[in-house]
Design goal:
21% strand, 5 helices, globular
Length: 123
């Protein structure tokens, strides 16, 4: 069983990702609607196998969350895939420099999301 943490301030995006991933028996979906809630989930000590992290969120954006994740010994080992509505080259490069293993453009294609997660979790 893989615990997938989805972090997005857009409730519809959270529901869509949860719907797609909940049909895969090996995935347990955990949702967070803000950067702060993401950090609370990580602090709870629950094992997280992969984080899907929105970049553009009010308050604490995904870039700041990623900075905090990378500073933590255990959290920094969790693969992070950014979710973004932006295809701006700067954003993509920044995501890579931050240690993200990739990004998925929103709105995502369900099959692409599942394939990216499977590839990441099996490596």
């Amino acid at each position: 069983m893989y615990n997938i943490l989805i972090v997005d301030d857009d409730d519809m995006m959270l529901k869509m990702a949860e719907f797609v991933l909940s049909h895969i028996p090996e995935y347990n979906v955990i949702k967070a609607n803000s950067g702060l809630q993401c950090l609370r989930v990580l602090q709870s000590g629950d094992k997280i196998d992969l984080i899907l992290l929105d970049i553009q969120m009010p308050g604490m954006d995904g870039i700041k969350v990623m900075e905090l994740i990378q500073k933590h010994d255990y959290w920094s080992k969790i693969p992070v895939i950014f979710l973004t509505a932006s295809s701006d080259k700067h954003t993509v490069l920044q995501a890579g420099k931050m240690g993200a293993i990739g990004y998925i453009k929103k709105p995502f294609v369900p099959e692409d999301l599942v394939q990216r997660l499977e590839t990441t979790l099996q490596s």
